[in-house]
Amino acid sequence: MHKISPKENETGRKKRAGLILKELRKLYPDADCALHYRSPFQLLIATILSAQSTDETINKITPVLFAKHGTPKALAAASREKIEELIHASGFFRQKAKSIQGAAQAILDDFGGKVPETIEDLITLPGVARKTANVVMGTAFGKNVGVVVDTHVGRLSTLLAMTWRSKDTKDAVKIERDLMEVIPQQHWTYLSHALIFHGRQVCSARKPDCENCSLANLCPSAGIAESLAINTKTQATTKKAKKSKSA
Ligand code: SF4
Fold this sequence. Notes:
Mean pLDDT: 91
Bound molecules: iron/sulfur cluster
Largest sheet: none
Shape: elongated
CATH topology of the largest domain: Endonuclease Iii, domain 2
CATH class of the largest domain: Mainly Alpha
CATH superfamily of the largest domain: Helix-hairpin-Helix base-excision DNA repair enzymes (C-terminal)
């Protein structure tokens, strides 16, 4: 069993994060993006649409959307009303229609019709922030330039004490920075997919199944996750978890 020191230092943190990664590789060797797509452009559009929605909903919308509007040219040329109708179920459909058509037009105007392959260029596109850019870079282009921090990744990183600078589970910038420090770069894209799998299958927000969790020996929140208010300050959460574990 891996012992979690209440005063875990940087070396200890990295070692434990490495063991968590190893376990995730065993549990979810094929963890990958749940969104369906056939090109970097389609992944970009699906990711923009997935904000405030679920992958399942988006996977129902995109086959119809992409059948006729699956390229930058076709999407930019479509009528706004038609696009709004097709993506209605994703929520915030007016803003999203504007963003995806804006992104398609910008790709045509500024990048010769091809999705750019740098974070800096990607975030110039309408509706694209760092999280979406990270998804495209890691999943479509296989470039590990960051870690995608969604709600599952934010929550699990906090419960697993793989973040220490973040104020809460939604502090994506600091969580990403911490994860990038403890996990080697070649695993960044995988880590995000694997934590999402684990969040869906074992460590759900409503009922973390610590009893049957293979990461329990590496997790300071094991057995007390349900009672933790993980949206409060991370430091307080981690401190409480460690205290309880070492008692
Ligand atoms: S031990 Fe519990 S809190 Fe920790 S990762 Fe597993 S299910 Fe989540």
